[in-house]
Amino acid sequence: MTAASDLLSRLQGRTILVVGDLMLDHFLVGAVDRISPEAPVPVVRFDHESFRLGGAANVAHNAAALGARVYVVGTVGEDDAGGLVRADLTKLGIDSSGVVSDSQRRTTRKLRVVTSRNQQVARIDYEDDQEVHGGLEAAIVSRIEQLSAAADAIVISDYLKGTVSRGVAAGAITAARRRAIPLLVDPKVPHIDYYAGATMITPNHHEAEAVTHMRIRTSEEAIAAARRFRERAQCDGVLLTRGEHGMTLLGSTDEATLPAEAREVADVTGAGDTVIATMALALAAGASLLDAARLANRAASVVVGKFGPATVSIGELANG
Q: Could you tell me the end-to-end alpha-carbon distance of the chain, in angstroms, rounded to an integer?
């Protein structure tokens, strides 16, 4: 058995706790063959609709697809979209006991109107993005404390939709320290001060530039920005994702540039979810930072060849 196949075999059965913004991706698909006489916009002739888990729920889906046992902590509204999120999580075998319902906010839903050729025409966002507070925040932190007891790694998936408050982030980081397990963050710039103490943060190059005020065009600039990002965020390591330019890894002892492996890019939506889910699961399985990053890079190369939020399988990683 090769080192790579040994790592893949160890992914299955690990337990991941995902904390963050649960979303529903709603697609309305149709054909476009004319422009409206009422305004210069395409007329979409409806064909069908579909729903997929998004945000932190997509991170959970990715981890589950790789054989992990997954717990999710977040919030949804008491609406149809929230019901769909819960139902889909259950269908996938993901534990949703940490999902807290809030009658005062709607479930985050991204409605995309797309053509039958997967070209996006418009997007409508349904959301209430004020940060959780009071009893709702306390309930989320309580779920984290309870469910982290079984976790091998914790992921914070922050989409700036309100779930990840300072208190929620602190609760997750404290739980990870107590358990001596890795905690990874898919960040948002306004919350950079929330993540101090994280094991690994996975900014894209735009987020890294915004936090560090540095230009990133070369591998050397990416390494320099990752170092400054680590100082600014007060985390242990950084995995900087750079799209077609690959990834830059900075750990306590590891420093590497990983070239992109994608051969064909269909849609980058949700690729960051796949990266952090794979990275967390690999670290939970005892992989080194470098091996975990290599596996996450391979997973990203597979998922960008699919439309919309998608997952990868053990088989696809083995054949990548």
A: 16
